[in-house]
Design brief:
The protein is an alpha/beta fold. Helices cover about 40% and strands about 15% of the residues. The protein has a 7-stranded mixed β-sheet, with helices on both faces. A 4-stranded mixed β-sheet has the order 11-8-9-14, covered by helices on one side. Strands 1-2-3 form a 3-stranded antiparallel β-sheet.
Length: about 350
């Protein structure tokens, strides 16, 4: 661990009766924990990004469904809470995967054991994501160390992909932290407009990790890549189609194009729970459109003339052809295509 590193970051925890969430809308200025005891509170927390990141919204959704059944373990409660949580955010596949698992476990257990089965399955989802994070961080760090033999390794990332976003240590940011064990690392973190997850959250995590870093405007990334100031780009993912097309925080596609033009590696890191094998390609990924006020206002203050329209797609899709490698807990897909992605999921894919 670097000499100035602090205690590991936690984004959520479960005490058997309530879900505790670190409210990410308050970071980096305040570390405020929310104690949630019902499915509606969890759904609202997911929608307003108090908890975010594909794996962590799946974990939160799983616990939310378990909470719904604690007081009323019946089929009606199960179905209504499942429907509410499953659609709290549309792009990340992990949310639907996690709440579907909890629902299936509860149905299989029957009314008498429904609540206990749901709690056990939610904890199993959490454990799976933690284990996946540990494995993919190791795999990604090993790959980057091989691709980039010279140090210090200068890595650019986008949005937030550390422990705040996933189970365990993270996905892309977890890979970067593990890479520090192979030699010096310097991190460039894009601010990630409009909600500044990079400036607020990634910088906060990097500070706690004790890793050298700088925050930059999203629009500055391509120029720095072209000038040879970046050795590789690594990002997370919210949904990966069967052919390897990848949805991630808006702005990712531009970084992939810049990396391809400069001839540097562009890696995507995420657990296999983010792969949607039923989706043929990225054209079918639903892109969440969030409120215009996230673009027209900053910190609650208007930055555009009154009445100015705004578009606010939260994600974009990077074609598989631009991805050097997809790093998961099940291994690395490279080149990224339908066959290599299917291999990550095993014979049942």
């Amino acid at each position: 661990m670097p000499p100035h590193a602090e205690a590991p970051v936690r984004a959520l925890s479960w005490d058997g009766e309530q879900l505790l969430l670190l409210d990410q809308t308050m970071l980096p200025h305040e570390e405020r924990w929310l104690a949630l005891r019902d499915a509606e509170a969890v759904a609202v927390a997911i929608e307003r990004l108090a908890v975010r990141g594909a794996p962590n919204i799946g974990i939160a959704g799983a616990y939310g469904l378990a909470l719904a059944l604690t007081g009323r373990p019946d089929l009606g409660t199960l179905e209504s809470a499942w429907e509410r949580l499953r659609h709290a955010r549309p792009t990340a596949v992990n949310l639907a995967w996690a709440v579907d698992r909890v629902r299936d476990a509860a149905l299989a257990a029957g009314p008498a054991r429904m609540a206990a089965a749901a709690r056990a399955e939610a904890q199993a989802v959490h454990a799976l994501e933690d284990a996946a994070s540990a494995a993919l961080c190791t795999a990604g760090a090993t790959l980057l160390a091989e691709l980039l033999p010279r140090t210090p390794r200068r890595i650019l990332t986008h949005c937030n992909t550390g422990a705040l976003a996933t189970g365990g240590a993270g996905s892309a940011l977890g890979v970067i932290a593990a890479l520090a064990g192979h030699g010096p690392v310097e991190v460039l973190a894009c601010e990630t407009r409009p909600l500044l997850q990079g400036a607020r959250l990634t910088a906060w995590e990097l500070g706690r990790l004790g890793l050298p870093h700088a925050v930059l405007a999203d629009g500055a990334a391509a120029g720095l890549i072209a000038r040879g100031e970046v050795d590789a780009v690594i990002v997370g993912c919210d949904r990966v189609a069967a052919n390897g097309d990848t949805a991630n925080k808006v702005g990712t596609y531009a970084h992939a194009l810049a990396a391809a033009a400069a001839g540097i590696p562009f890696l995507v890191a995420g657990p296999t729970t983010t792969i949607d094998a039923a989706l043929p390609d990225g054209a079918g990924i639903v892109i969440e459109e969030r409120a215009a006020e996230e673009v027209t206002h900053l910190g609650g203050v208007a930055i555009t003339p009154p009445g100015t329209p705004a578009r606010n797609p939260a994600f974009d899709v990077t074609p598989a052809a631009l991805v050097t490698a997809l790093v998961t807990e099940a291994g690395v897909a490279s080149p990224v295509d339908r066959a290599t992605v299917a291999a990550l999921l095993g014979p049942s894919a």
